[in-house]
Design goal:
The complex is a heterodimer of chains A (about 525) and B (about 700). By secondary structure, chain A is α/β, with parallel strands linked by helices. Chain A contains 23 helices and 14 strands. Chain A has a 5-stranded mixed beta sheet with strand order 3-2-1-4-5, with helices on both faces. Chain A has a 4-stranded mixed beta sheet with strand order 8-7-6-9. In chain A, α5 packs across α14 and α10 crosses α13. Chain B contains 20 helices and 27 strands. In chain B, α3 packs antiparallel against α4 and α12 packs parallel to α13. Chain B has about 700 residues and is of the alpha/beta class. In chain B, about 40% of the residues lie in helices and about 20% in strands. About 0% of the residues of chain B have low confidence. Classes of the chains: A alpha/beta (about 525), B alpha/beta (about 700). Chains A and B meet through β3 and α2 of A and β15 and α15 of B.
């Protein structure tokens, strides 16, 4: 067969409002060429956001469309694909049945992803589709992704990712929630504005403290808005603020029918234009940006980028690791953690991890778990010093970590929970609910974190250098310290036992001043 | 200054509103048919070709009555009195149509009787009605009648207990009046259908270099008394009824389009009577009975001085031999000789290829699908099919491709007028072979012609696209002038994929790179390009539009052209058929010239040229400038960008504009006249293209045969 080294892959987004697919051809150096881009409306989100479950009709429609997609994949002999679904299915009570029916009817395995994963995909796509993203992030940028179910806000400042928030005011959700009162007021847009205000109010403070000059918009609605603005002779990929406002004023009092006729878009898309505009303008006004970059990408581009990263280990991949860590540091900051301490523990635990590779035999992703758990290990103290390990678990597991699936977040939360005195135990529900291999990962990483924490029990950063030598039955920690390590040695010995039990090696600490 | 002009245009428009700015489309169509008749009258055309033209005039009129007149009657019956854009109510249109059609039919039979029949006689080709037969011929006919005809005829007698039988649409019948033995006051009416299962044109045994034909109805008349044995036949005569066949299916209710169309084919036999043709000299009593039974008014009774339904002459024009009475065929170049390369993919990947049919062979198109079907690297073939030939080699190739495991998607338009039965058959065949067959879209006919081949090559997936102004029909490609483009341009590839995804319901409508489609953006695109030209003219720049279409009806487009003309754009329109635009009207359309070419080949290509301030753009399309193309069909408009192809298209347009032989120019009053040849050379554009094709053939042949010397 011709075409050696060229693979055709498919990225499928089973979204709340739209089903999308990209079929692309990838070259061995990770570049791609899009062959097919498809889009079809669905009622999944409408069902879920109004009744809590996806209706039978919508499942059938979705399956029919996906079956067509599969047909097209067959045409290109696609072997690698990634199909994900977002809030529409994620929040549905009958999501497991929906996914199973899709699998039976189309053969597609659709993975439900959380907001953090979705965001991660979007960043990947953005990296390629923004003009000079590094400079943009350096100058301060907001990335606003308006989905059907919710809005993702991400803020970059001084080149680093500062924070991300997920707010449940998606355009479709806004429309569904408020549709009840739509008939009771003449000024429905004003009601929507108020509602959005109430939801984003808490962000205003953080925005004020930062100097944000750039605004990047994402989401299907923006594609349409950009198309409309293009007709006004605007650049498709950058829409000026006053153009958006003008558009808002114009369609504010138009009926859905009028909007759909005027701009020749389907009614189901027309209903989303106004809520979307309101959200964009609200956020835009919190920044100093003059307009919205519209890179016109959607989740499917991100999925595609991810497939490529996984297949070809691209440079982009390491950039994103950095972003993940940055977003975690933002969480640490939010809870007022002692930066000097956690950075030190982070360093120590990674040092131990790297030097004991032969012992634990864990991979890169697990190293990331450890790193994040190290940064966040003290987060429980934000609630209460007593019982802080439990609080630690609760806080972390309710946070979004960029690109992390829900089960991965649980692993990290468990590791962090056991950083102190507590040991994993079958009576701990949070630990017990893990799969067996995840339990082992948690225990191994927690045992490392415990040792690292022990070595800075005084928060004085005494350890200058660690050298671990591995013999048949022993791990010898040779530590150079700046001052007396008495407290640390005591703590080390207290925590040694768990490590020894999990890893099967004796630990020996040798300190030198 | 321009504002002043615009005011003038508006004033003129108001002034014209009394008689309107537009020609009526039905009357304009009748003028087109009259130009076809002119070709039958033209003694410079070979005799058998003239027969073909006169047959086309008849078949055209049949369709016109069934569909257009039928739909006008529907409007009248529904009480619809609104004037159309030409200012005529449906009733008024019907009156004018009836009058114009009567003169046309008169002219047609005049030509038949006074020119064609005598000319045929000179060639010793004779029609007989049974007179002057040798005994042998007489016996031959009698035998023929008894053996072949008699078993399949069913005479029907109409009386109190036997109602008037159903007369099939377009069937030929003989009405008879028979003496009633029991009641001398009242004669008996009888009717017999001339069987459609037997050839209507019957050749009699004759001497060599002589041909004697007799029509089936005349044989019937000769021997019909045998059937009504013992009854006296007082009068008889042929008649033919045309029924309303305006095909409008209730798609809402029709879940299955296939079924709906099968139904409507049956229904077509039953529509209300529209036109009654009767043999000239038919007994008044008979005519009255027929008129009453068929419910056809005087205006719509056509008294025919000759055989009814001249489409029978089409058969005759294909008679073996008589080469000197026919056009010479274009010599056939196989695609190998023509393109000089076996692998069409290689050729197309290398450069865009424009094909001007029928002057250039259609074979490459068929061959391309064939190669795609056999090529192991081809993954998928997708194609729209509108009208295909009986034993379409393209359909065969697609079947083969499906059998070879390719993904084959075919978008079939079942509602291609009067071809449905044929369409349904091969659509079923494709389906059985495993092709993914999609039957049309609700409310939209798929008229665009596009073919996509997806192929896996060394450097990745590559897409090959063929787009054309004509259907994928190897038979009509020999008679229709059409232009097709092969390209491997990735933008066209992406657009083609997208288009098929949209048409097959895989994806919703989105923008495309190069292609515009109706009913989404086609009209806007045209209006944009016209107004762009207008702007250039207003800014004092050169501005020119040249458009070649089959019909120009769409009012919005016409209005835009008027405005462009008023702003100074030079507009050259080559409109073969209906043209509702009034050219050369002062202050309205003085810069618009409309010509029509009707010749040996049916002009069918649609070419759109815009000067665009020197950055010339040329497009090809499956669409005419008609509402139905722009609003109710899926049509494709694509730019031709390759320099060589563009130049060729420009050349084609200019050659057609130069035509002084087959071109007619449309005048302000709606009539067409010959080109004023003073100071111009005699120039026949179709002949020019034909000669060029022959030359090309000879050149290629010379290259082939080096050793042999062949006298020319």
């Amino acid at each position: 067969m011709k075409g050696n080294g060229l693979e055709v892959v498919a990225a499928i987004d089973v979204g709340s409002n739209t089903l999308r697919m990209i079929i692309a051809q990838i070259t061995p150096n990770g570049e791609y060429f899009i062959l097919e881009e498809l889009e079809k409306l669905t009622n999944i989100g409408k069902d879920t956001f109004s009744t809590g479950r996806v209706s039978v009709v919508s499942i059938h429609d979705t399956c029919d469309i996906l079956k067509n997609y599969v047909q097209l994949m067959k045409e290109y002999r696609v072997r690698t694909y990634c199909a994900v679904s977002t809030s529409g299915i994620r929040e549905a009570e009958n999501r497991d049945y929906v996914l199973e029916q899709i699998r039976l009817f189309t053969g597609l395995n659709v993975r439900v992803i959380n907001n953090a994963e979705e965001r991660f995909f979007m960043y990947k796509a953005l990296q390629e589709n923004l003009p000079n993203p590094t400079q943009l992030y350096k100058d301060g940028a907001v990335i606003l992704n308006i989905g059907s179910g919710g809005v993702e806000v991400t803020v970059y400042n001084e080149g680093n990712l500062k924070f991300t928030e997920y707010i449940k005011v998606g355009s479709l959700r806004l429309h569904e929630i408020l549709s009840e009162i739509a008939s009771t007021t003449l000024d429905f847009p004003a009601v929507m504005e108020e509602f959005v205000d109430s939801k984003v109010d808490f962000l205003k403070e953080s925005f004020r403290n930062m100097d944000i000059k750039n605004f990047v918009g994402l989401g299907g609605d923006l594609m349409i808005i950009s198309l409309i603005c293009q007709k006004e002779k605007e650049d498709r990929k950058f829409i000026r603020k006053d153009t958006l406002k003008k558009l808002y004023l114009r369609i504010k009092n138009m009926t859905i029918d009028q909007i759909s006729k005027e701009y020749s878009i389907s009614k189901s898309k027309a209903v989303l234009i106004l809520p979307s505009l309101i959200i964009f303008i609200k956020f835009l006004e919190m920044t100093k940006a003059e307009g919205v970059y519209a890179p016109l990408i959607s989740l499917k581009h991100g999925i595609l980028a991810d497939i490529i990263d996984e297949k070809y280990n691209t440079k982009r991949r390491s950039t994103f690791l950095n972003d993940i860590i940055n977003s975690v540091r933002y969480i640490a900051k939010k809870y007022g953690l002692d930066e000097k301490h956690y950075e030190y523990v982070e360093r120590l635990s990674l040092e131990i991890f790297d030097q004991t590779n032969r012992v634990h035999r864990l991979g890169e992703r697990e190293r990331l778990y450890l790193q994040i758990a190290s940064i966040l290990h003290d987060v429980g103290k934000y609630v209460n010093l007593a019982n802080h390990d439990k609080h630690c678990y609760n806080i972390i597991s309710s946070e979004d970590i960029l690109g992390f699936s829900t089960s991965e977040v649980k692993i990290v939360a468990n590791i962090a929970r056991y950083h102190g005195e507590e040991l994993p135990h079958s009576s701990h529900e949070t630990y017990e609910s893990l799969k067996i291999e995840d339990k082992l990962t948690v225990s191994k990483l927690a045992s490392i974190l415990k040792i690292a924490e022990a070595l800075d029990i005084s928060h004085k950063k005494k350890v200058r250098d660690i050298n671990i030598s591995v013999s048949a039955k022993e791990l010898i920690f040779k530590v150079k310290a700046s001052e007396g390590m008495l407290l640390e040695e005591w703590s080390f010995n207290n925590n040694r036992e768990f490590f020894e039990e999990v890893m099967g090696y004796k630990l020996v600490l040798k300190c030198r001043e | 200054m321009f504002d002043k002009r615009m005011i003038k245009v508006k004033e003129k428009a108001k002034e014209l509103e009394v008689e309107s700015k537009f020609f009526n489309r039905e009357l304009s169509w009748l003028e087109f048919n009259d130009r076809v008749l002119e070709e039958a009258q033209d003694t410079l055309n070979p005799l058998l070709e003239r027969l073909k033209f006169i047959a086309i005039v008849s078949s055209n009129l049949d369709e016109f009555f069934m569909v257009r007149v039928g739909s006008l009657w529907d409007q009248v019956l529904a009480g619809f009195r609104k004037e159309d854009s030409s200012g005529l109510t449906p009733k008024a249109q019907l009156n004018k149509i009836s009058a114009r059609a009567h003169t046309m039919v008169y002219d047609q039979y005049n030509c038949y009787n006074r020119s064609l029949i005598p000319s045929l006689k000179k060639e010793r080709i004779v029609f007989t009605k049974g007179e002057k037969l040798t005994e042998f011929q007489q016996r031959y006919l009698e035998n023929y009648f008894n053996k072949e005809v008699f078993p399949v005829i069913t005479p029907m007698i109409v009386d109190k207990s036997r109602p008037f039988p159903l007369i099939f649409n377009k069937s030929l019948n003989i009405a008879l009046l028979i003496k009633n033995k029991n009641n001398s006051e009242e004669d008996i009416f009888a009717t017999v259908q001339v069987p459609s299962v037997i050839q209507r044109l019957v050749e009699l045994p004759s001497e060599e270099n002589e041909k004697i034909f007799i029509l089936l109805e005349d044989i019937l008349k000769m021997f019909i008394s045998n059937i009504f044995n013992g009854h006296e036949i007082i009068a008889m005569g042929c008649y033919r009824l045309t029924r309303n066949a305006d095909l409008s299916i209730d798609e809402e209710g029709a879940e299955d389009l296939l079924e709906a169309i099968e139904q409507s084919i049956k229904l077509r036999k039953w529509g209300a009577g529209i036109r009654l043709e009767v043999e000239k000299g038919m007994d008044k009593k008979l005519i009255n009975i027929l008129k009453e039974e068929m419910e056809v008014k005087d205006d719509w009774v056509f008294s025919i001085s000759g055989p009814l339904d001249l489409t029978v002459l089409m058969k005759m024009s294909f008679m073996k031999g008589y080469k000197h009475l026919k056009h010479e065929e274009i010599p056939k170049l196989t695609h190998k000789k023509w393109i000089e390369e076996d692998d069409l993919f290689k050729v197309i990947a290398n450069k865009d290829i424009l094909l001007h049919h029928p002057y250039e062979p259609y074979e490459p198109v068929v061959e391309f699908v064939r190669q795609a079907a056999e090529d192991p690297d081809v993954l998928a073939i997708k194609q729209t099919l509108y009208r295909v030939s009986g034993k379409s080699p393209i359909v065969e190739a697609l079947v083969k491709a499906a059998e070879n495991g390719k993904q084959v998607t075919v978008l079939v338009e079942l509602k291609a007028r009067f071809d449905e039965e044929n369409n349904i058959n091969w659509a079923k065949r494709l389906e059985q072979a495993g092709c993914h067959v999609i039957y049309g879209l609700v409310g939209l006919k798929i008229h665009g012609k596009i073919l996509l081949v997806v192929r896996r090559e060394e450097d990745g997936i590559k897409r090959y696209v063929h787009m054309s102004t004509g259907n994928y029909n190897d038979v009509t490609a020999k008679i229709y002038t059409d232009i097709g483009l092969f390209t491997a341009n990735p933008y066209f590839g992406a657009d083609a994929s997208l288009l098929f995804n949209m048409l097959s319901g895989y994806s919703q409508i989105t923008n495309m790179y190069k292609i515009d489609i109706a009913p989404i953006s086609l009209r806007e695109r045209f209006l944009f390009m016209i107004s762009r030209e207008k702007e250039h003219a207003r800014n004092g720049k050169k501005a020119k539009i040249i458009v070649k279409v089959n019909s120009l009806v769409d009012e919005k487009i016409i209005e835009a052209l008027y405005e462009a003309s008023a702003s100074g754009v030079e507009i050259e329109l080559i409109v073969r058929g209906i043209c509702c635009l009034k050219p050369g009207v002062k202050d309205l359309s003085e810069r618009i010239r409309v010509t029509s070419i009707v010749g040996r080949y049916l002009e069918h290509s649609r070419i759109y040229y815009f000067y665009n301030d020197g950055d010339e753009e040329i497009y090809l399309s499956s669409a005419d400038w008609m509402q139905r193309n722009l609003d109710r069909r899926v049509e494709i408009l694509f730019p031709v960008e390759d320099k060589i192809c563009k130049d060729r298209l420009k050349d084609i347009l200019h050659v057609q504009i130069k035509d002084t032989v087959k071109a007619r120019v449309l005048k302000e009053d709606g009539s067409y006249s010959r080109i004023d040849k003073r100071g111009k050379e005699q120039f026949d554009s179709q002949r020019y293209f034909y000669n060029a094709a022959v030359k090309q053939y000879n050149d290629k042949k010379k290259q082939d045969i080096i050793e042999e010397f062949i006298p020319i």
